[in-house]
Design a protein that fits this description.
This protein is mainly α and 238 residues long. Among the domains are: 1-57; 59-122. It has 8 helices and 2 strands, in the order ααααββαααα. Strands 1-2 form a two-stranded antiparallel sheet. Strand 1 and strand 2 form a beta hairpin. It holds the Pfam family DUF5134.
């Protein structure tokens, strides 16, 4: 399990943030007029729920379903980002296409994180790696108990056997590099959305105040989500 998740305060804080963001996306889905907007908001809510469940290792039996939904969501946002301009219900304009592309990357990253967590957990369980199982034990006389030390002569280690038997585990065995890259990318996104949130918005024109409020809310949601993703990926680099 990710080390930072062993800290209850961090786990509860991340759960609260993800739950609040997911609830607000459901609120936006209920108020959306377009069908595509409603689907988009529901998918965001499902992603936040899956991330919160991952923190507490909930619903492991539905893990494949969660990964499938997130992968389908990534494909859905990708199709919106590359759709023809005449499809007005999908992402239109440069800003809209960039937003949909970013959301596709977010959904794919969430699916990747769930896959890594499940594979790493399964690998540790199969190898019996508890962090202290390979340490030599001292007897009462202060001598090292050789029987407790690992014997490697003409034997295959459990980790090697697991890697051979499970190619997926071997594939994600070195997840530090991609996790670090994703942590940097989402950290940069969080800074970008925070800058947009704090930037002064124009106040002229009829109805501008409502649009400004909506933009600030969206930027706050995006900044919070990106910062949470960056933190969760950063903890996977150790």
């Amino acid at each position: 399990m990710i080390l930072v998740f062993e800290i209850p305060a961090v786990s509860w804080a991340l759960t609260a943030v993800l739950s609040a963001a997911g609830a607000y996306h459901l609120y936006l889905a209920a108020r959306a007029r377009k069908v595509t907007d409603r689907i988009n908001e529901v998918l965001h809510a499902l992603m936040h729920a899956a991330m919160a469940a991952m923190i507490w290792n909930l619903a492991p039996a539905a893990l494949l379903a969660q990964i499938g939904v997130l992968a389908a969501a990534a494909l859905w946002f990708t199709l919106q980002a590359i759709a023809r301009p005449e499809y007005k219900l999908l992402c239109t304009g440069t800003q809209g296409r960039i937003t949909c592309a970013y959301h596709a990357a977010t959904m794919a990253a969430a699916a990747f994180m769930l896959t890594i967590m499940n594979t790493t957990s399964a690998g540790n369980t199969a190898t019996g790696n508890t962090g202290a199982g390979n340490m030599p034990q001292m007897n009462m006389g202060g001598m090292v108990d050789m029987g407790s030390m690992p014997m490697n002569h003409h034997t295959t280690t459990p980790a090697a056997a697991t890697s051979t038997a499970n190619p997926l585990t071997a594939l994600f065995a070195h997840q530090s590099a991609p996790a670090l890259i994703l942590a940097i990318l989402f950290g940069t996104a969080a800074i970008t959305f925070t800058t947009l949130l704090l930037r002064r918005q124009p106040t002229t024109g009829h109805g501008t105040h409502g649009n400004t409020h909506n933009n600030r809310t969206k930027h706050a949601l995006e900044a919070t989500g990106a910062a949470t993703m960056a933190l969760m990926f950063a903890t996977m680099t150790s």
